[in-house]
């Protein structure tokens, strides 16, 4: 069969048999030596859990009365670590332009009390989907005073979604000091923080960074039982090492809290001496288990102004994260995207089977490259096929159907635009599903359009 010739329609009896097989057994289907893998037969790595790409968070208390030069130097020190997230303290009167350099965004509610604890994130990977400010304590002086109300504290938080659908919430907070009229505010502050975290964790893992003004290493001060009961886990609990963060007496008063700890792997922690009276605390983490899946059900949007390559990155990631033995069924009306061609080439080197279906009027250079790599025999495990009558089979403009990728089985991504080089210039919508029903409902028309006998 010529590559450019529209493929013949598969007999109805064959299609009926496939549907029956899907419904009854979801086992390997015959078809010569071709690789046809259904949702129930996705490969994985036995005995291991999926792990996300690394995450880095920096907790930075920037002493409020430092000079401009020292303040900027400390901020630069935090960003020199190329973090995903930064939680700041004591920066009420520092402008956002200082706190969020190019490539980062910042959230806080402006104000003398609410603006002290902003959160910043790396926009190359993360986009804000929700945000807010939460009261932690409101202990006021008994007598009116012009002095600063040390007991009035807030947390700022953001819920973020990565360009491939990962979701996490990050909270920045700063507890009142354990002295004077606020000496009894530590436990109530933990409880207020936990109320916020409980609301956020319904949408995914939560990270908290902040100066909590209680020494982790002082058994008489740190309310371990309360913190554990609230489901908050300091990174120190996981590593077994409490790092000195306060320059005064080397106390451990800055924290990075995990909620829930079982959703993370802690890869390391460190402190860095800066000009402030607090060392900067850094934790290197990864999401694990179901939280580590690179894909979550929902919609990913390309906005030419803010996230021009969101859908492209999503499609490429679905191929890049497919393990050896997985099958990628990729359909696109046209293929003129070098990143996709490269991802397919690398996937084949890893032992991933790739089956590509296109419909362009002309064969693009990328397609010719892939024809040489994959061949055009649709009875094989990897191939390239062409179908000019695209609408007849009700296929999306582009779709990635992957048996296993990024910790997800039965991944399906449908885009309303084909995979072409200018796709990032227009608004594009991709829908992600990770259930067998959605996966299998596209499986049959994909093979029918390719002329693959089943």
Automatic annotation (TrEMBL):
Pfam families registered for this protein in UniProt: Exo_endo_phos (PF03372)
A single GO molecular function term of this UniProt record: catalytic activity
Domain of life: Bacteria
InterPro entries, per database record: Endo/exonu/phosph_ase_sf (IPR036691), Endo/exonuclease/phosphatase (IPR005135)
All copies of domain Endonuclease/exonuclease/phosphatase, residue ranges: 75-278
Protein's UniProt name: Endonuclease/exonuclease/phosphatase domain-containing protein
Organism: Nocardioides simplex (Arthrobacter simplex)
């Amino acid at each position: 069969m010529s590559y450019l010739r529209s493929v013949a329609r598969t007999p109805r009896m064959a299609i009926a048999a496939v549907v029956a097989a899907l419904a009854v057994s979801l086992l390997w289907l015959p078809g010569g030596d071709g690789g046809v893998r259904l949702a129930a037969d996705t490969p994985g790595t036995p005995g291991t859990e999926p792990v996300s790409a690394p995450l880095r968070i920096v907790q930075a208390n920037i002493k409020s009365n430092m000079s401009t030069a020292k303040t900027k130097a400390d901020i630069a020190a935090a960003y020199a670590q190329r973090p995903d997230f930064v939680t700041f303290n004591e920066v009420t009167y520092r402008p956002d332009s200082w706190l969020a350099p190019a490539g980062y965004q910042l959230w806080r509610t402006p104000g003398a009390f609410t603006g002290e604890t902003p959160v910043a994130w790396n926009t190359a990977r993360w986009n804000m989907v929700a945000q807010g400010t939460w009261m932690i304590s409101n202990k006021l002086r008994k007598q009116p005073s012009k002095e600063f109300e040390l007991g009035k504290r807030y947390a700022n938080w953001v819920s973020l979604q990565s360009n491939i659908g990962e979701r996490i919430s990050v909270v920045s907070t700063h507890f009142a000091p354990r002295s004077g009229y606020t000496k009894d505010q530590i436990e109530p502050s933990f409880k207020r923080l936990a109320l916020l975290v409980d609301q956020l964790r319904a949408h995914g893992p939560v990270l908290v960074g902040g100066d909590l003004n209680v020494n982790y290493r002082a058994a008489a001060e740190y309310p371990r039982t309360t913190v554990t009961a609230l489901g908050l886990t300091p990174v120190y609990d996981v590593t077994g090492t409490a790092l000195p963060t306060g320059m005064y007496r080397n106390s451990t008063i800055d924290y990075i809290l995990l909620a829930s700890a079982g959703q993370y792997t802690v890869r390391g922690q460190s402190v860095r001496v800066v000009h402030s009276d607090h060392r900067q605390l850094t934790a290197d983490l990864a999401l694990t288990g179901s939280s580590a899946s690179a894909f979550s059900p929902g919609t990913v949007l390309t906005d030419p102004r803010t996230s021009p390559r969101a859908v492209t990155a999503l499609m490429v990631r679905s191929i890049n994260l497919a393990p050896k033995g997985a099958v990628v069924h990729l359909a696109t009306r046209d293929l003129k995207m070098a990143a996709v061609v490269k991802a397919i080439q690398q996937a084949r080197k890893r032992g991933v089977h790739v089956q590509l279906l296109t419909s362009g009027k002309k064969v693009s250079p990328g397609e010719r490259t892939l024809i040489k790599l994959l061949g055009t025999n649709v009875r094989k495990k990897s191939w390239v096929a062409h179908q000019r009558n695209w609408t007849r089979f009700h296929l999306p403009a582009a779709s990635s159907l992957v048996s296993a990728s990024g910790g997800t089985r039965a991944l399906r991504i449908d885009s309303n635009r084909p995979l072409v080089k200018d796709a990032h210039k227009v608004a594009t919508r991709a829908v992600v599903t990770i259930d067998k029903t959605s996966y299998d409902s596209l499986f049959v028309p994909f093979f029918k359009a390719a002329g693959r006998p089943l």
